[in-house]
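New to this. Help decode both lines:
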Amino acid sequence: MEGVIKAKTTKDKVIEYITYIFIYAFLGWVVETIYALFIHGHFVKRGFLYGPICPIYGFGAVILLIITQKMYKKPFQKFLIATIAFTVFEYIVSLVLEMLFGLRWWDYSNDFLNIQGRVSLLYSIFWGIAGVILLEKLHPFIQNKLQSITNGNKYNIQNIICYTLIVILLIDVIFSVLKYL
């Protein structure tokens, strides 16, 4: 039955979102690393984990994808939601990491209109812009590429890769937590 599009099961959607978490967590790590290289002039390890991912970007992107999926042609509304969602998420993650490990992975205390150094107006605006770029340009591109790779794959390579990455991530989380305790 060529040309028939099979409806996605709940398991398929979960695997798809987990895949996006890993993709955007890796891309976030790349952006953070380039930013740090530019600011410091040399490589600086970014993030909590040993591996090349920053999960805050992956989870933030998927949260944004889920809450904006019905806003097809409303970029300003997407900007506002991305700004608020990413700012709240960044604040919560900062607070939780500090409560668990007594460390701060970022500090905006010197930025204008910051809240406890965890979030600031400048970065909130940046997150809003980044969110619109993600939703309008980056995600459609990645979604199409992922679909072209996974469609028609009888061994469902996406599941295998996803489960493998989850195992690797769990190992990384265990070793990373032990490092900071």
About this structure: The chain has a mean pLDDT of 89. The beta strands are 114-115, 119-120. Residues 10-40 form the longest helix (31 residues). Helices lie at 10-40, 55-67, 75-101, 121-150, 157-180.
